[in-house]
């Protein structure tokens, strides 16, 4: 590393802004020169209005001093890194030039902080807006930021001696327990677990912290569904085990149905201590679905749900630039199964009613020949029986699902009870409704064409995140507002990097199916973690799941795919 950053900066006072570029490289940490700590200016900033420069701070193992138990496993490293990023963000709080991406309630693998698997060394990365007086270098402020604030962050946030050891332990152990609980689900035949005492409601629609106050009812599992799981740190915990199959959440409006489902949606991620959902977990292959009219669909076999459209289009090979509520939800369901989903979550509040139900009276009035849609109620059992895909549905408005549910859970004033027996009795009285499909057909796999994922405009960055929930992909905007399990806005950036990586590494090669390309992406992320995405570009991001990455790819408006004619399910069979 180079010595003397402070003096170098002093010489640049008043120089033209572009000369900051000369500082790119690795420096000894100002004021801690003999410790081995370094400050690297990864990328400069061309002018005061350009995106901030990137800085990486490295604290070597001996100096960081974390006991090996805190970084011995990937889960522990992720938790420790998350704790350190949060602490660093606190130390830097109020400083507008320097932004540390610490994330929210979820504990994700992020580019901002990494703990080395080799020796526990810590690297912190962030953006820093290099200060200027107009287009001249403001060296004094730069010295304050780079030579005093940054060393202060390293000293107070990235060294074990500076931290509250009990708080570090609690954070790491909480995350480890959540992860162990999630890992235990398949062995227990469960799709989700909600611990007794969990707090599910949130502060508000825009505040993801737990709701507070007298009115909050902690979760308590119905007796018959209570399971006990032994965790590495907390010991035995009890809670509601939600089994595989078709589960229905019923109950009156405002009784907590959607809140429970939302907790299952975010149960794919670990949560910080005090969140209330630390021990609310769902299988990693859980995908929330919803209607999303207007979205693009490229060559998806939706014939399980949609037959003979009025315009005569072939629904075994269905494309549109402007899907309706029902066709969008049908496509999203088929795409989720294609990408490997094992559990589907659907809430009546955001579902297309005509894709969910078609009752006896409507069957009598509108002949099947005149109704292209086959409701999910007729294939949801086959999804589980023939494809191993479970479903959890919130449905307070129609009783048709009572017949097909393995479990009916009633929410009553935020308290769940198992009403499956009673539901069976109710469902034993025939309604005159008849099933319109026998089985859910095999998935038709698609192979994305890499050429369709290249940006038109050469030389420009391929993929950029745009605000909270959109990506720019070449010339196309990808709208991710309806992809509800994206944990935070920086995960959108992670999705962009993952797409970029899949194309650059040739995982998407025109012959591999999307599912195979996603397997290769998962392998990259399993072996290199966030480093795999950092290699694409140094920016703030959180590592995404394959499902959100696939969802983004499926929404790229220029996407083209190939389908092998011989693939199972590409036949012309029709439901019912
Ligand atoms: P539903 O989907 O049954 O209509 P919601 O899940 O939308 O009901 O919940 C309605 C309201 O009740 C929301 O404002 C939510 O925050 C609140 N709520 C949900 N669960 C609880 C709980 N356990 N304790 C207190 N308030 C809750
Ligand atoms: Mg609701």
TrEMBL record:
Limits of the ATPase of the ABC class N-terminal domain: 5-160
Domain of life: Bacteria
InterPro entries referenced in this protein's UniProt entry, alphabetically: ABC_ATPase_C, ABC_ATPase_put, ABC_N, MRB1590-like_C, P-loop_NTPase
Sequence ranges assigned to domain MRB1590-like C-terminal in this UniProt record: 462-562
Chain residue ranges for the region called Disordered: 424-468
Residue ranges of domain ATPase of the ABC class C-terminal in the record: 166-438
Protein name, as recorded: ABC-ATPase domain-containing protein
């Amino acid at each position: 590393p180079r010595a003397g950053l402070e003096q170098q900066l002093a010489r640049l006072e008043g120089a033209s802004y572009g000369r900051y570029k000369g500082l790119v490289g690795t420096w000894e940490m100002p004021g801690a020169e003999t410790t081995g700590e370094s400050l690297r200016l990864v990328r400069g900033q061309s002018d005061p209005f350009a995106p901030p420069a990137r800085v990486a701070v490295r604290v070597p193992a001996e100096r960081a001093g974390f006991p090996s138990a805190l970084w011995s496993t990937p889960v522990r490293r992720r938790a420790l890194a998350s704790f350190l990023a949060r602490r660093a963000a606190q130390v830097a709080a109020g400083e507008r030039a320097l932004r540390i991406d610490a994330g929210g309630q979820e504990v994700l693998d992020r580019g901002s902080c990494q703990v080395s698997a080799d020796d526990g060394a810590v690297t912190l990365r962030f953006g820093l807006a290099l200060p200027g007086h107009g287009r001249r270098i403001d060296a004094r402020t730069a010295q304050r930021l780079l030579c005093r604030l940054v060393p202060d962050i390293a000293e107070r946030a990235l060294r074990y001696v500076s931290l509250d050891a009990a708080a570090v332990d609690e954070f790491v152990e909480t995350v480890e327990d959540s992860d162990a609980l999630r890992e235990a689900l398949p062995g227990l035949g469960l799709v989700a677990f909600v611990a007794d005492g969990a707090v599910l409601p949130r502060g508000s629609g825009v505040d993801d912290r737990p709701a507070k106050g007298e009115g909050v009812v902690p979760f308590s599992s119905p007796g018959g569904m209570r399971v006990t799981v032994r965790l590495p740190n907390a010991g035995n915990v009890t809670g509601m085990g939600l089994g595989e199959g078709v589960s229905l959440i019923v109950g009156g409006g405002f009784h907590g149905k959607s809140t429970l489902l939302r907790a299952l949606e975010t149960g794919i991620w670990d949560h910080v201590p005090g969140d209330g959902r630390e021990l609310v977990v769902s299988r990693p292959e859980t995908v929330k679905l919803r209607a999303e009219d207007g979205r693009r669909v490229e060559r998806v076999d939706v014939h399980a749900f949609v037959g003979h459209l009025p315009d005569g289009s072939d629904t075994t090979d269905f494309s549109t630039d402007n899907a309706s509520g029902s066709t969008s939800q049908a496509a999203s369901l088929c795409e989720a199964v294609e990408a490997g989903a094992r559990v589907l979550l659907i809430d009546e509040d955001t579902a297309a009613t005509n894709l969910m139900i078609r009752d006896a009276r409507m069957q009598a009035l509108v002949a099947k020949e005149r109704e292209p849609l086959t409701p999910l109620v007729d294939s949801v059992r086959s999804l589980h029986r023939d494809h191993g895909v479970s479903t959890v549905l919130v449905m307070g408005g129609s009783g048709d699902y009572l017949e097909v549910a393995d479990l009916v859970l009633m929410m009553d004033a935020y308290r769940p009870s198992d009403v499956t027996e009673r539901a069976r009795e109710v469902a034993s009285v025939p309604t005159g409704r008849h099933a319109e499909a026998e089985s859910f057909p095999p998935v038709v796999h698609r192979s994305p064409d890499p050429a369709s994922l290249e940006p038109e405009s050469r030389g420009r960055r391929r993929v950029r995140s745009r605000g909270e929930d959109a990506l720019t992909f070449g010339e196309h905007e990808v709208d991710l507002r309806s992809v509800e399990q994206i944990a935070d806005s920086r995960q959108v950036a992670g999705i962009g990097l993952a797409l970029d990586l899949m194309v650059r590494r040739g995982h998407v090669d025109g012959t591999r199916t999307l599912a195979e390309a996603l397997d290769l992406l998962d392998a990259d992320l399993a072996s290199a973690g966030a480093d795999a995405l950092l290699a694409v570009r140094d920016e703030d991001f959180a590592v995404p799941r394959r499902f959100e990455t696939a969802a983004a790819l499926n929404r790229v408006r220029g996407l083209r795919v190939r389908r092998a004619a011989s693939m199972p399910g590409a036949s012309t069979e029709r439901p019912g």
